[in-house]
Amino acid sequence: GAVVSQHPSRVICKSGTSVKIECRSLDFQATTMFWYRQFPKQSLMLMATSNEGSKATYEQGVEKDKFLINHASLTLSTLTVTSAHPEDSSFYICSALLAGGRDQETQYFGPGTRLLVL
Amino acid sequence: TQLLEQSPQFLSIQEGENLTVYCNSSSVFSSLQWYRQEPGEGPVLLVTVVTGGEVKKLKRLTFQFGDARKDSSLHITAAQPGDTGLYLCAGGGWSDYKLSFGAGTTVTVRA
User: Fold this and answer.
1) Minimum mean pLDDT among A46-55, A71-80, A97-106: which range?
2) Which residues of A touch B41 (CB under 8 A)?
3) Which of B33, B42, B48 sits opposite A93 (nearest CB)?
4) Which of B101, B105, B107 is the best substitution to test chain A (most A C-beta atoms within 10 A)?
5) How far apart are CA B46 and CA A78, in angstroms?
6) Which residues, in sequence order, are CB contacts of B67 under 8 Å at separation 6+?
7) Does residue B110 contact residue B11 with C-beta atoms inside 8 Å?
8) How far apart are CA B41 and CA B81, in angstroms?
9) Where would I find the H helices in chain A?
């Protein structure tokens, strides 16, 4: 149980285009999902918290107009990188919060999306 | 600045040896989670510890949460090449479910 998928797994795009990444919780409902960015050989950096039915909350320094987040259902959150530039190239990972008892407030991660902007 | 300090940053050992990874902080966490991540993949949850002083054992892996809920350790007995990966500890917040990640420990187990 607690499986999270991401699509696409890899994407290459031209500078100036927009790219949408999907994050789905496959076997549970998640009112809260998170989006992270990870640079090579570094840890995960939280970008934003995605809340079902409401606006996402962004971490300091993350441009909300650059990284659009939509959490329209209890199993799907999307991250759109708008007007992508080479510096946006990175590994983007989402997680979904499985909430229940105290032991179940755990984030389960997707497999990640490798974005390369040319 | 990382809220959680992991040590060592890199660890290379021979198959069959034991290893310990440490995760320390000056902050108190509601829970502490350990993940293992392989290149090009997302982190996979190994364990969640929620009680100060708690010890959890999963086969050859032993996880400990400090009494003060500020630190944790991961001990692997008789390491195998399949244990190779990036080990991440993450502390849980008290009200927002956010995780604060350590910088990670890259473990390489040589056959």
Assistant:
1) A97-106
2) 111-112
3) B42
4) B101
5) 26
6) B52, B53
7) no
8) 18
9) none
pLDDT digits (tens, 9 = 90+) for A26-66: 999 998 999 999 998 888 999 999 988 889 999 999 999 99
Q: Largest alpha-carbon pair distance within chain B?
A: 44
Asked if A116 has any chain B CB less than 8 Å from its own CB, the reply is: no
More confident residue, A72 or B80: B80
What is the Cα gyration radius of chain B?
A: 13
CA distance A82 to chain B (A): 23
Which residues of B fall within a CB distance of 8 Å from A4?
A: 42
- What's the CA gap between B49 and B69, in Å, rounded? 10
CB-CB under 8 Å, A6 with B42: yes
CA atoms within 13 A on the CB side of A9: 6
* Encoded amino acid at B16, one letter: G
Could A111 and B45 be called an inter-chain contact, meaning their C-beta atoms sit closer than 8 Å? Answer: no
Cα A19 to chain centroid distance, Å, stands at 12
Quote the CA–CA distance of A46 and A37 in Å, as a whole number.
Answer: 7
Place of tokens 């909350």: A57
B95 secondary structure, DSSP code = S
Alpha-carbon gap, residue A46 to A9, rounded angstroms = 19
C-alpha closest to that of A108 among A39, A40, A23: A23
List residues bridging with B33 in a β-sheet: B48, B90
